[in-house]
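Our platform keeps sequence and structure together, in a single record for each protein. Such a record has a labelled line for the sequence and another for the backbone structure tokens. Nothing more is needed to write down the fold, since each code stands for a local backbone conformation. For reference, a complete record is included directly beneath this paragraph:
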Amino acid sequence: MSPVVRIGVVGLGTVGSGVVRLLAQSADHIERHAGRPIVVERAVVRDPAKDRGLPLAADRISSDIRDISRNPDISIGVLLVGGLEPARSMMIDLLEHGKDVVTANKALLAEHGPELFELARRKGRSIAFEAAVAGGIPIVAAISECLAANRIESIRGILNGTSNFILTRMEEDGADYADVLRLAQSEGYAEADPSMDVDGTDATQKLAILAHLAFGTWVPWDEIPRTGIDGLDLDLLNYAGELGYRIRLVAVARRGDGRLALRVSPALVRKGTPLAETRGAYNAVSIVGDAVGRMFFHGLGAGEMPTASAVVADIIDMVVGRSAITFRTTGMLDVSTGAAGAASAAMQLGGVESHERHFLRIHAADRPGVLARITGILGEHGISIASVIQHAGGEATGDADAVGAAAGTVPLVIMTHACSPAAIVRATTAIDASDVVAGRSICLPVLEE
């Protein structure tokens, strides 16, 4: 029999427990793929006395990371704790003491990736992180290995299952955002504090990691323009539906002329397209490569066993030598956000802009000449109109379209023809500053494919 591979697991929460169970329940199957048995030698947790019902002896569980990092029999550390600290210090300790590391902590990699990858290279170690992005979808392997011969042109995806669950249930049940958020929390799809999911932070951190893989350049995640779903309401989804679209939180990264543009924001996606039909807590990623064209990946983006599946796949890759993807960063982009500030604003790195259609919802004064005034402002900025929806207040949902509304206003929905992000930002700024609207307009990009 080949020598046993001994690993140490840091964190026995939902994912860590799933990893221990999967390694035990599928031991024979995993050994066939790895060529060697894989066993959990040690686990490190905050509370070793807690009964977790796992196939792991109590004397193999402790609270000291050094029981893994200093153990010469352990070759792989599986870091499954969240947050930045002590996760960063733990990973450094594991790498410094000669361990390869598998992790699912996307926040850690998004914040400290360059430092940690550089340390791994210096130590001749690998960091594998398939589970950090899109749960059970093998998107990291697809970009870094399967599509290695391709020049990646663009990535577009639904990377946060909580937001997608909320938007899907609002659309299907005709429910308000606040009600569906409470449902998501009660069913375990959203945390007690859901802010990182609903404000776009989670998806943005994942996009930064994918962009690093695909384009070889590190973009600080907190400099990528992001808008979450917490400003959306049911009427917006219904208006989008009237026009043949659904609203999804979409992460976009694309290259053009050697430059990159990235953003995370709600966007209209045409019904019948893969992103529009991605429902519930599922994730989906579309990639365009210069050789293979467009490819689409779809699956559960979170949960105990889908994420554990990705972690164990990384462990197997470590064992057989397929995990040397601790890639070199070609540089840190000096980010210029250009017209950032509106929901549709793309980050322009070196001036990259993509002309897109846009969806505007405005609360306009209910008096003659207002529509002409608004369309005139759009025209002054070179933006032409494809369609207009104007309902009397309340017609869209049977309830008042109250978000941002005021007495004496009606909701006005405009679909533009393709224009630049900078032009739409200037136009919406001018509209919002006029005396014919109440509150801020909402502007969303429209994705046709």
In short: The first strand starts at residue 5 and ends at 10. The chain is about 35% helix and 25% strand.
